[in-house]
Design a protein that fits this description.
It comes from Microbacterium phycohabitans. Keywords: DNA-binding, Phosphoprotein. 53% of the residues lie in helices and 15% in strands. By secondary structure, it is an alpha/beta fold. Strands 2-1-3-4-5-6 form a six-stranded parallel beta sheet, sandwiched between helices. The longest helix has 15 residues. The chain is globular. The model has no long low-confidence stretch (mean pLDDT 91).
């Protein structure tokens, strides 16, 4: 049996997907979680084979959750998303995610991807992969993207600095660099710009 953890903040999607996967003879859904923090705790407790994680969850998003799970548990991680932007795919792959597919895929496809990933292979939806190859690369450094991500909900410079273990001055320097590179006037504009392009 392949033991599966599901994390999605949308109750209907999470419970429906869990019910459909439970119909598969070789899959056992061991946990259903509403957010990344709960998924991380349950993954440590239950040690599933595959974690199926929604990209957009409150608190820790799917990619951050996957990165943390992989540091603590030998589980494979698959990201599912409604908005499959190429920049997010690159971030997911660099975080060690094993699978990436849109929520528009039928449950049979999701089950097949879980089996692929559990067998040690990687799976990336072909359309998303093609888009990623043709998409513009971010001109921002990883650290600059970290700063935008950490401040995406309007956090103060001090809060961003604390979250990233940087000084407030270093955060301000990164923000200034981001605004200069993108030709924008505010951190909020830069965050929106980066989100629209899938960089964060």
């Amino acid at each position: 049996m392949i033991r599966v953890l599901i994390a999605d903040d949308e109750d209907m999607i999470r419970t429906a997907l869990a019910a459909l996967l439970r119909l598969e003879d070789d899959l056992e859904v061991v946990a259903e979680c509403r957010d990344g923090e709960t998924a991380l705790a349950e993954a440590e407790r239950l040690r599933p084979d595959v974690c199926l994680l929604d990209l957009e969850m409150p608190g820790l998003d799917g990619v951050d959750t996957a990165a943390r799970i992989r540091r603590r548990v030998p589980a494979r991680c698959v990201i599912v998303t409604r908005h499959a932007r190429p920049g997010v795919l690159r971030r997911a792959l660099s975080a060690g995610v094993d699978g990436f597919l849109p929520k528009s895929r039928p449950a049979d496809d999701v089950a097949a991807v879980i089996r692929e990933v559990a067998a040690g292979r990687r799976y990336v939806d072909p359309e998303i992969a093609a888009d990623a190859l043709s998409d513009e690369r971010s001109p921002l450094t990883d650290r600059e993207l970290d700063v935008l991500r950490a401040g995406a909900r309007g956090e103060t410079v001090a809060e961003i600095a604390a979250a990233l273990h940087l000084s407030a001055g270093t955060v301000r320097n990164h923000v200034s660099s981001v605004l200069g590179k993108l030709g924008l006037a505010s951190r909020q504009q830069a965050t929106i710009h980066a989100r629209e392009r899938g960089w964060i």
